[in-house]
Every structure is written in structure tokens, then in C-alpha cells.
Amino acid sequence: MNFPKDFIWGTATSAYQIEGAYNRDGKGVSIWDTFCHTPGKINDNETGDIACDHYDKYEDDIKLMTELGISAYRFSISWTRIFPEGDDEIPNAKGLQFYDNLVNCCLKNGITPHITLFHWDLPQTLEDDGGWLSERTINAFVKYAELICEHFSDRVEYFSTINEPQIITRMGYSTGQHAPGLTLPDDTVLEILHSLAKAHAAAVRAMRKCAKRKIKIGFSSTGNLCYPSTGSKEDIEMAKKLTFSTNKEDFLFCHQIFCDAVILGKTCEYNRSWDDVEALNPPLDFLGLNIYNGHEVSSDGIVKHGIGFARTVTPEVLCWGPVFMYERYKLPIIITENGFSCNDHIFLDGKVHDADRIDYLTRYINELSKAIDAGTDVIGYFHWSFTDNFEWHSGYNERFGLVYIDYATGRRIPKDSFRWYSQLIRR
Ligand code: IFM
């Protein structure tokens, strides 16, 4: 594998999934607090109330990150720690203090912080007042983005506005599996996606104005990706075509429904009604891609695979996904998430041997290096996730971490993949 010397190697997390301390130091209630406290919504009624207790253990976690050898850490800020009601007059000093401590601790340890503003934990007060269908939420997001940028841009260079607008709308407002658990008609869900695009665009403009130095702004997209069965021209063309053609049954799970609007200033099949689309694409510095798996395609269509490993482990997607996305959007790409949930457990020797994850990562990162060899401008890779954490409606059932969390005690146990990733970075 060949990677540029200045390639960004990192790990990623999000606030609700790791921090815990859900009601401490003036934090307000987010839609995820409410959702998890509603019986029947989450596997085993688990909550992020304590999660990995990163709020209290962030120094230990960053110490482990230095052992891992990463150069960057992607985390999200909990909006309700800063503005408990979403758009309060004054920010919550204790909330800002926590992220000051976190950012400063990263910098002291030679780790570049990458801040995501919104990884799904919308303030409940805003949701109660119409959520993303209300102008108040859009304005509140811009105010929050401005505050974070003003406060941190002296020390932080990389900012992402929104994580996975496709999943926010699909699972939060269409299938209802995620907070706030609504099952709205498609037209209304599209309006919500439109608001997210407006909020993103307005926040980017506001952040450019108030930044204390030149910052880099992007967002993280996810969606259907296809890769060709062979290197034939026909297979490649078909894989590209099916990557960007929308599946009617799952029309929200595609990159172009958001990326065409906010990067190209264009609509696609399902959002033609967005009449302001040319104002939604202020220039960005990078495109974040969250890539887990894709579909193999030959010139006559999608190739069906068996179940389990064969279907979810599709390494070629980490080559062709970035290749197709770069061709279309022409922005430097950061893989902001990629990883694997395994059946991890502590073995009799007290260690966590996650050979499946090492195999997955070896295959995927090898494919990523091929995308770079082919001329795709991929500038970084963030493993999802640093530690095991709260996996939304699946609760603590899924483990994506390089570090195992013993939830009963909070003990951190670096898995074999931690050592593997560390060696890869050092090489
Ligand atoms: O845990 C999530 C993350 O919050 C968003 N992207 C996918 C991950 C794994 O499901």
C-alpha cells in the first residue's frame, strides 16, 4: 500500500455515542435523550446517558490515541452542551469549557482536531417548535456554527457541518428508527432535507466570515455506492450509472440527493422542487465520505451475493466509491468513517482478538490506496470508531471500536486491530 507522507490517519466518534454526562454542567435535552428515554425505541432500552463516559475520561482516551499514533481525531460537539435550548442568548460556559479542554488536550498531544457540528443530537426545544421544518432551527444552527467557529478557529482548522443528512432524514423522519422517531410522508421528509441543505449553506457562509484564520469546511455524506465486477469499460460504466441512479424504494440513501445540491448547485430526480438550489453551494474544501459497503455490478446489473460476511465486506467500494465521487464532485476527499462491527469479546487471555476487523481493514485500506494510485485526491482516513460506543437503535449490541469498552467498569482494552492500525500508521 502506498499513501502520501502527509496523509491524515485518524479515528472518529460522535458526542452522543460516547460522552455520557447527558444532564451535567448545564447540558440541555436533545432528541436522542428523549428518544432513548422512551421505552421500546432502543434495543434493550439502552441509552447514551453514560455511554463510554468520555466526558470524564477524555484525557485517558486521548492518551490512548497518542499510543495509537493517529494524527487527527474527528469528534462532534453536542449542540445542547453549548446552547441547551438550541438558540439561547448566551452559550453555556461549562459546555464550551469541556470542548476547550478536549481540543487543547488533542493539540498538546500532537493530534489535529476535526470538529463536526451536527451528528444528529438536535436540541429537543427546537424539535418541539417544528424542528427542521421551522426557520428557527435553521437560524439556530447558523448561530451555533458561528459561535463554534469564532471560539475554536484560532486552534481548529477542519470543520464539518452535518454528518450524513441522508441518514438523518431516512431514519429519523421516514422509517422512524432514529430520533425523533417520526414517519412522515416523503414530501415532508424532502423538505427536511432541504432545510438541512439551507442550514449547511448558510453556516458555511457565516463560518467563512467569522473564522480567525483560513479554515477548511466540508460535511459527511453517505449513500449507495457500486463497484465494477471487472475492470472492463462496460462494468465500470454500469457501476457508475447505478451509483448515481436513485432506487425508488430507498430514494434518500443516495449521495446525489444532497451532494448535487450543496456542491454542484443542482437538483436531481427527487428534489426538483428546490428552487433555490443555486444558492446552496458555497465553496467547500473537502467532501467527507462515510463508506461501509457497496454493491458489485457487472454490465448487466447488480451481482447478488450470499449473506453475512460476503455481503457486508465489499472492500472494492473503498476504491471505486472515492473514484466515482471525485469524478463527479471534484473536491478533495476525506474518508470520515469506515469500519466494521464484529462479535468482539474478551478472550481467556484477557485480550480482544478481532481478526475479522483486521482482515476487513487490510482489504479496505488496500483498496483505498488503489484509488489514490489512480489519481483520486483522497487526503485522509478516519476509522469508525475509536472506542466501542452507543450504536443508536442497536444500543450497545454493535461494537465498532479499535478499543473495547467494558461497559460495566468503563475499562478500555485496546483490541488487536488497535495494534494493527498503529503499525500501519507508523509504516
Ligand atoms: O455509528 C454510526 C455513525 O454514527 C454514523 N455512521 C455509521 C456508523 C455505524 O453505523
Task: Write up what this structure looks like.
This protein has about 425 residues and is α/β, with parallel strands linked by helices. Helices cover about 40% and strands about 15% of the residues. The strands form 3 sheets. The chain has an 8-stranded parallel β-barrel, surrounded by 6 helices. The longest helix has 25 residues, at about 185-210. The mean pLDDT is about 95. The protein binds 5-hydroxymethyl-3,4-dihydroxypiperidine (IFM). 5-hydroxymethyl-3,4-dihydroxypiperidine (IFM) binds next to loops.
* Biggest sheet details: 8 strands, parallel, barrel
How many E strands? 13
Spatial strand arrangement across the major sheet: 1-2-3-4-5-7-10-11
Which blocks of ≥5 consecutive residues have pLDDT under 50?
none
Radius of gyration: 20 Å
